[in-house]
Amino acid sequence: MSVYVGIDVHRKRCQVAVINEGGEVLANRNVPNGVKPILSVIGGLPAGTPAAYEAAFGWGWLLELLEGYGFEPHMVHPLQCKAIASARLKNDKAGAAILAQLLRAGLLPEAWIAPPEIRQLRAMLRHRAQLVRLRTLLRNRIHAVLAGHGHGRPAGCWSGPGRQWLASLELPAVSREVIDDALALIDALQQPVDRLDQEVQQRAKADPRVKILTQLPGVGPFTALVLLAEIGDISRFGSARKLASWAGLTPTVRGSDRTIRHGHISKQGPAWVRWVACEAAQTAKRHPDFAPAYQALARRRGKKIATTAIARKLLTRVYRLLTDASGGGAPS
Fold it and tell me: Which residue among 119, 255, 303, 309 is least enclosed by CB atoms within 10 Å?
């Protein structure tokens, strides 16, 4: 007899439901997160039993558990799981049972599960980006303190002369303490950032697709690696438009009868892809290949919308380059 598992994942606990091929609920229990509690509900099920869970916060450990004990994991796209969102009875017990029912009926809106090496690459690149963001936050804090006392140095504050200039300023004790603490934290961050930069360079040299993507304006080794890690297998996208839609760079569309309204970009999907694409667009919009389109759109719709449009054009180029590199050639 076939059985199906639905798991509603939370930070500390999970709701685990098991149903049979007739839709009868065999078990529906709330257990703490961990190997033993989860296996206390599903540990006796046969190998290859399908198990569905939402792509919620902290799902990685559950995927490793399911794969390690021979289950067939299915990750659910939470925004597309209409049955749960529209259910009148909305609680964990109902949610877990509905996941299992959708899995049994073959109606589960699945999300792609990246292989372990891709998940590790994503983690490394996101860690590097977050450390750089933290360093930028600290630098901005120093600039804010200096601005509050009427100081500014156009040549910058982070080189040797800049540090000497900062040390020479006469500031109140608390302001001096803020600047010194921020500088100490910036210096502490430099070592892990440098180590991660070396790892990025090594990974970039080992992947020939990075060399292909860095032909695009605004795309360096780090940006290329982020795109490769977040996109994963390019063949899962049938066209460049589908890739852009997945990345949240296509406009929302609302239509009724003959009236169609296009709104702002959806911003659904991976925020990291949108971030690196928009960062690369800041440089690409000045390149001869993109500048005319950017300038024309900026005059009509504004610089922000024009920059986002260039980000989408870059992603279209990324799709074509990766598809050609993989021997595909799908229409874009």
Answer: 255
19-27 contacts, C-beta under 8 A, 24 or more apart = 19/97, 19/100, 19/101, 19/104, 21/104, 23/101, 23/104, 25/97
Q: What is the identity of the amino acid at 81?
A: C
Single-letter amino acid, residue 2: S
- 89-93 long-range Cβ contacts below 8 angstroms, 24+ apart: 92/8, 92/10, 92/15, 92/30, 93/15, 93/17, 93/28, 93/30
CA–CA dist 321, 309 (Å, integer): 19
- Note whether 189 and 134 are within 8 A (CB): yes
Query: DSSP character for 62?
Result: H
- Distance separating alpha carbons of residues 50 and 72, to the nearest angstrom: 4
Relative orientation angle of helices 303-325 and 271-284, to the nearest 10 degrees: 110
Average pLDDT, the chain: 91
Cβ 108 vs Cβ 76: under 8 Å: yes
Window from 59-73, 286-300, 316-330 with minimum mean pLDDT: 316-330
